[in-house]
Amino acid sequence: MTGLTFSREIGGAVAGGLTPIIALALVEWTGGRSRAVALFALLVCLVIGVPAVLFGPETRGRSLLAPTRAELEASTGLFEEAPRSAERKPGGAAATAERAV
């Protein structure tokens, strides 16, 4: 068993074991209402999701199947950024709008 596998399994056991206990405690604390459990689930999703979106790498235009960094760089043109506006891109939204007029 690798360290990554061990960490994942321990994390799953802790989260899977504590979640029902936390949910039960929240329901008892709120007098039988399940709204606190829903808010707890929402909070957990926000705590995990917001940093993942903010700090995760952009994968637009990259080959997600490239097994090595060299193949990834070859497929993306050395991680060049995409144009920021439609005017820089030939045939972009601005060019399409001009053709429609």
UniProtKB/TrEMBL annotation:
Chain ranges passing through the membrane: 12-30, 36-55
UniProt xrefs under SUPFAM superfamilies: MFS general substrate transporter
Record keywords, A-Z: Membrane, Transmembrane, Transmembrane helix
Start and end residues of each stretch annotated as Disordered: 76-101
InterPro entries: MFS_trans_sf (IPR036259)
The keyword Transmembrane is annotated on this UniProt entry: yes
Keyword Membrane: yes
Biased composition (Basic and acidic residues): 81-90
Protein name: Major facilitator superfamily (MFS) profile domain-containing protein
